[in-house]
Amino acid sequence: MEKITNSRELLYIGGVSFFPAAILFKGMFLLYLATLGVCLLLIKFDPLFKKFIVQVEGAKYFIYVSLTLGGIFASISLLYPEYKTVIVLVWFASFVIHGVIIADRMDFMDDDIT
Fold this sequence. Notes:
This protein has helices at residues 7-25, 29-45, 47-55, 59-79, 84-113. The radius of gyration is 15 Å and the shape is globular. Helix 1 (7-25) runs antiparallel to helix 5 (84-113). By secondary structure, the protein is mainly alpha-helical.
């Protein structure tokens, strides 16, 4: 099986995990539901996601936690608009930190193979 080493592939995976929550933060609930449905179908049927989940330990956890936390934090920010900036920063920081951990695991895998 071919390794995921292309940065575009990793950005695609991160974008699919990021995009629905970003839409919900803008307050577009129906569009959020549509993009969440499309994202879940991509995660289930896209060969790149299947390859990523098989190759990287914790990838499935990263994807589903990113989608879930994004929805939760965005919903909270809609309920408390005065704290929206803080909520967005906390969610984005958790997304970035978890993404860096996954990227480090991928780098570690590449070092083991070569």
